[in-house]
Design goal:
The complex is a heterodimer of chains A (277) and B (295). Chain A is mostly helical and 277 residues long. Chain A has helices spanning 2-33, 38-41, 56-63, 69-100, 106-116, 125-134, 142-148, 152-163, 167-175, 180-191, 193-209, 212-217, 226-236, 241-273. Chain A has a domain at 64-236: MetI-like (MetI-like fold). Chain A is built from 14 helices and no strands. Chain A starts with a helix and ends with a helix. In chain A, 43% of the residues are buried. Chain B is an all-alpha fold. Helices cover 74% and strands 0% of the residues of chain B. Chain B has 13 helices and no strands. In chain B, α2 packs across α13 (264-292). Chain B is globular. The chains are: A mainly alpha (277), B mainly alpha (295).
Amino acid sequence: MVIKERASKISLTVVMALLGLSCIFPFIFMLSSSFKVSGEVMKFPFHLIPENATLDNFTGLFTNGMYRFEKWYLNTIIMTASCIIIKIFFVSFTAYGFAKINFKGKDIIFLVLLSAMMIPGDIMILPRYIIFKNLAILDTMWALVLPSCVDVYFVFLMRQSFISIPESISEAAKIDGCGHLRIYWQVIFPLSKPSIATMALFSFTWAWNDYMGPYLYISTMDKQMLSVGVKLFASGLVQDYGAQMAAATVVLIPVLAAFLFCQRFFIEGVASSGVKG
Amino acid sequence: MRTSKFQKKENRAGYLFITPYLIFFTIFTGIPFLMAIGLSFLNVKYITRLEDLKFTGLKNFIKVFANKEIMQSLGRTFEYALVYVPLIMIAGFILAVILNKGVYAKNTLRATVFLPYVSNMVAIAIIFKVLLGSNSPIIQGLKSLGLDFPLLLQNLKLALPTVAVIAVWKGVGLNMVVYLGALQGVPAELSEAAQIDGAGKWQRIRHVIIPMVSPTTFFLLISSVIGSLQNFTVIQALTEGGPGQATTVMSVNIVRTAFMKYDTSLASAMAMIMFIIVMIITLIQWHGQKKWVNY
């Protein structure tokens, strides 16, 4: 029985490892190819270690004079950081109101917000364009940052996590004379660091990977984001496979690094709450 | 009942906390939603030109249903969903069952399958276009084995299912992790009891595990259906709607109609129709769940 069990565990591991390999092979191919000259990328059989490793593909990204990778990179970093910071405070502040204060009409307002989650994003793209134009934030990063702050989904998740903090803790603070603002900032917020970390990480990947937002709302090349820029670059250099792979690597590295180091927050955050697709 | 002084204070504090959010929500979600409804009944061309605005009733909707090209893209949206939804549901479940049964290096394997989910679609598309293009090492390898492999992304018939499969590859990690959480919540005694009663491996999965995780299946089904309709980025990054019109689904068509043909109202009507379809599918699932979702 024990032997049979071990055999089944080994065979399942092999099956799973093959599936896992199919998930990471494209990334391995990309990383390896980004150090190759273009002719070698398409060589069969595939070599993991480049024959003549070169950094030209990477330096080419930042010195080609036509595609402003350094600008796009900086724009994306600033936009993503603004998204994360604003969202952390804005969402947790709102969630505190819904979780810890008993005011009139709370449940109805929350229900209205929740039902808005059912509205598919596609029907918002045009009206939002008009609104951005009227607020004079079209073609600026604020057109990407501000709408992402009203993500109902995270208000819902943060509210859940605040509710799970025992009421007795805020009661004790109240007896000590704290108002809601102080309880939020000095008690509840510090106690919720793991859920805030999960929210920050998901905001990071979503903002960093967003393609549709910058594609529709940013038109000036110098203000463009990495996702759109990299696509332009790849369509402009169809035959230069090495350069394309280097470009893809440069886009993916920050998110992959975040994922490697903070895997726990990503995966367990999903498992406990079920983050949307 | 008289509102106490304390309750008044609570009300004030509550509104203080949620008002900033409600203002932003109204500007970026509430008003756009109402505008989307309004635009679909008007005759707006070009996004900014608002003179000689006219109420046109259902004219835009009739135009959508009379337009062969739009109806074909709606058909492709369903085709895409019919590949994407069953595949991502089944693959996510099977992967979670395997991981839950016990494998070595569980966390590493879980992370590798989840990795594509956090990755940038445009970067992924660049890699896949090279890997599936002519002359790629994979195609050459298959050729040297004597297999003539079609260029999946450039094939009129195969491009759409290929894009859907790549989307599944990217998204399946999420379904897997959510299912895994649900499977870990199934008490081991239940499965063991069934085993003692003589239930085989498949019977246990069929009659114990699947019913126990049905609430999760329901949740994932709804979010996968909605996800399958929001496929603009996947398709734009991989094929831009091509070859020909082979992957021009509704989401791509809406953006084209709005931002290239400048037919604002027609695009809004198309988006509203998608919205209504989502609502109907969700309602059907909501009613259907009573039959198969336990507790």
